[in-house]
Amino acid sequence: MDRHSLRTALLAAGLPPESFQLAGVHEATDRPTDFWFMRPAPAGGWELGSYERGRFEVRETHATESAAARRLYEILVPPVG
Questions:
Q1: What mean pLDDT is reported for the chain?
Q2: Dihedral of the CA atoms 21, 34, 15, 36 (nearest 10)?
Q3: pTM of the full predicted structure?
Q4: Residue 5: helix, strand or coil by DSSP?
Q5: How far is residue 43's CA from residue 12's CA, in Å, rounded to a whole number?
Q6: What pLDDT, on the 0 to 100 scale, is given for residue 50?
Q7: CB hemisphere CA count around 24 (13 angstroms)
Q8: pLDDT tens-digit profile of 31-63?
Q9: C-alpha pair distances (Å), 33 with each of 2, 20, 55
C-alpha cells in the first residue's frame, strides 16, 4: 500500500476528507482544526501523527511508506466485528 492507495481506501471506508493528510497526495487547502497525517521523516522513513490545537505531534515512525500506510489505515479504520 502507498499513499495513493491509502487515500482511496480511507475515503472508501467513509472517513471525511478533512480527517487526514497524506504528504503530496491529499492535503486540505484550509487547515482543519485536527487531523491525522503521514509525511516523510527528516531523517528518512515516514512519520505518522496528529495535528491538534495548532501543533503537530509525531506518534510513530516507520521505515517504509508501505508500513506507514498500512499502520495509518489500522489506526483510522477500526476492524468490524
A1: 94
A2: 50
A3: 0.92
A4: helix
A5: 32
A6: 97
A7: 7
A8: 778 999 999 999 999 999 999 988 999 999 999
A9: 25, 11, 10
The DSSP letter of residue 54 is T
* Mean pLDDT within 17-23: 95
Specify the DSSP class assigned to residue 59.
E
Residue type, 15: L
The residue count of the chain comes to 81
First to last CA, the chain: 23
Comparing CA positions, the residue from 22, 11, 17 lying closest to residue 65 is 22
Residue 43 is predicted with a pLDDT of: 92
The label of the residue with cell 495513493 reads 4
Burial 20-58 (b: 16+ CB within 10 A, else e): bbbeeebeeeeeeeebbbbbeeeeeebbbbebeeeeeee
Query: Could you tell me if residue 74 is left (phi over 0), alpha (psi between -120 and 50 degrees) or otherwise beta?
Result: alpha
